[in-house]
Design a protein that fits this description.
The complex is a heterodimer of chains A (236) and B (622). By secondary structure, chain A is an alpha/beta fold. Chain A has a single domain, classed as P-loop containing nucleotide triphosphate hydrolases (Rossmann fold, 3-Layer(aba) Sandwich). Chain A has nine helices and ten strands. In chain A, a hairpin with a 2-residue loop joins strand 9 and strand 10. In chain A, helix 3 packs parallel to helix 5. Chain A is globular and about 45 Å long. With 622 residues, chain B is mainly α. Chain B folds into two domains: 224 residues, no CATH class; 295 residues, ABC transporter involved in vitamin B12 uptake, BtuC (Orthogonal Bundle), CATH 1.10.3470. In chain B, the strands form two sheets. Chain B has a two-stranded antiparallel sheet. Chain B has a two-stranded antiparallel sheet with strand order 3-4. Chain B is globular. The chains are: A alpha/beta (236), B mainly alpha (622). The interface between A and B is medium-sized, with 29 and 21 residues.
Chain lengths: 236, 622
Amino acid sequence: MGLSLSVRGLHSFYGRAHILADVSLEAAAGEVVALLGRNGAGKSTTLKSIIGIVRPAQGAVELDGARISGEPPHRICRRGLGYVPEERRVFASLTVNGNLEVGRQPPRPGLTPWTPARLFELFPNLAGMGDRTAGQMSGGEQQMLTIARTLMGNPALVLLDEPSEGLAPVIVEQMVRAIRALKKEGLAIVLSEQNVNFAMKVADRAYIIEKGRIRHQCTIDELMADEAMRRTYLTV
Amino acid sequence: MGGDLGFYLVQALTGLSSASALFLVASGLSIIFGVTRVVNFAHGSFYMLGAYIAYTLIGHLGGALGFWVAVLLAGVAVGIIGVVVELLILRRVYQAPELFQLVATFGVILVIQDLALLVWGAEDLFGPAAPGLEGTVNLLGTRLPEYDLALIALSLFVLGALWLLFQRTRWGTLVRAATEDREMVGALGVNQAWLFTGAFFLGSMLAGLGGAAQLPKGGADLLMDFNILAAVFVVVVVGGMGSIAGAFLAAVLISELGAFGILLIPQSTLVLMFAVMAVVLIFRPWGLLGRPEAPGQHGQAGPPEPPLRPPPPRLRAAGLLLLAALLALPAFADDFTLVLAVEIAIMALFAASLHFAMGPGGMVSFGHAAFFGGGAYAAALLVKYAGSPMEVALLFAPAMAGVLALVFGWFCVRLTGVYLAMLTLAFAQVGWSIVFQWGEVTGGDDGILGIWPSEWASDRLAFYYLSVLASAGGILALQYVLHSPFGYAMRACRDSVVRSASIGIDVQRQQWLAFAFSGALAGLAGGLFVFSKGSVFPDEMSIPRSFDALIMVLLGGVKTLLGPIAGAVTFTWLQDEISRLEYWRLILGALIIAIVVAFPQGVAGFLRARAGPWFGIREMEA
């Protein structure tokens, strides 16, 4: 089954720049949580601090009650946390199958293990492209490949950094379907988004982040009802 | 006609066989660099160790099977040595700036040199013939040693095995992925530490194998390490860093050029090699099969450089005080101390000139001794052949070094980061080969003797003042230019090529001139050096001399203007103390490694953090 994530009082720095100040959020198993905010609000840094790429200066990240903050990213990943980066970051010179192989980790008890075949079902666009070089694929295909690559690690909780960024509307629809399918598998998902409409289609709850602080948290239904709040924190 | 054809065929095959060692070592260097981003300077030393270890093992094993088992075991043994180096030293400094890792590997070179001397002695060892392959084969009337064919087969076999490893195994896939994006590989659950160690094992093993396999042809000697290093850097620059196939192609190309070039014009191999390099770099700056590196990825990794400010008043006062103390020094010090002080002053100028290029200029030079030695030889040759006085020679030295830097720099500024650095080393090694081999003019290994200062400066005290004032003047000139519009433009080019170009700076020209200026001042240091010693030897152009400056700058800290001076004082004094001991390289190497591990920010960086605030130095926002 999925894992629950608890982030408490996270502070992160780039050099001396204070990027995150006292960020706390929760995600339960089977829940899709959106982290919403404008460019530069601290969304990506929050996800990077959870996976351990950015080492938080203060605060705790717990996975099912076990503290993971301070561990190196590969350990955190092996505990069941999958991370899908912004801007794709596929291994451009490797084939699709090669990319998937890099992500492969042992099966996790209680979850159906991911195989390339299952992933091609989830992302039909990738089917039949196993031997294609990742660098030659379209942006949408690369975005799907990064998610598929992370899923090969059989994560119980997935961090998705701006999954809809720069994608054509048709591809965004496929992304919505894929995220719903993952939720059905019992995975917890934390996604960062600028695109409120995308988040409203997939998320159960939302946190709103601005200047490195969580300003508000609510259910997605509340957010849909509150146009004033969307305007204050989210619209450009 | 058949005889001719056979001759050319054999010549081609000879070229291929001499490509095998180059290919093995270069591919190993490439693999290590791809994964760990460390340019392993000790790679030449691993090659040398491979030859020595194989020599000993062949002596014990004997027989045809024994020979090949010994070659293989030597490779494995060197692979294990590489792992030890990675685990004990490099793993501790991966977080430090990239260049510190280079300094650490240079420490390893020194340690291995003395250990090899200790174990195998100073005599060159002749390699035993490979049993069963002592003969020659007749190809269309020309004879080719059988062992040459074995070497060709070996390199093709290794090329195939590496291809399978990287294309067909999980480990190879992970290595290729890590070469592209290490951080992402870690976030996908792969423990990078073991990937690094694995890459070090494989890369070092290939170097050891290369050294072991060439034993029957070239034997084993203590100069092998630096001799192959420059050639391997050329191969990697031409072939493209991180590309195994590129390394193979470039090794073959350069070896074939060597094999045929020698027929056209004897002694032309160096010229041909550089003609090829020039053509490749103009049309494919990232090498035949390489990929462009992201700007600013290497050599200047990490957060952006803090802006340089003119020194704050207290620091300026401290600098003046230091100069005053130096001027007053003869009143207290004995002759011996004055001689050391002269050397420190000259080295401080040399280090400051390198710092100018690599710190604010963003062009790391691994071959700055080319200009130091170039200036030294220019001065010495002028005195020897034209009988000119010291004053003229001291002007001639920086001028000629500047011209030399213009020539080398024309190629170098076409590259960035680690490619640029490797190219400077290769150029410096060419300079070294020329003065070393062109005995009629340069005196070769015997150097040029009897180059003494003019009458008025021949007194120890007068020469002390001359060199301190000239060095201080040179350092101040560097400082002045750094804070002039030229210096601002240079730093702009380092920080952003695109933005600099878009405001109308000709980036390559700016860097070219900066490189030449830095070279000219290194030449001034070299000129002073000749007159302080009365002689000049090829050593002044050698790789270790380049590394002296590099270590001074890095120990001092690249980001501080006082760094190179602090580094020069520390290092020159240290070297002076240690070099009187037997096996001083071993001690110096171990010390360098210890310092890098203990002070990853450099000695001055460390002091700056402690004492900086008092001098009014603020840590800048990163």
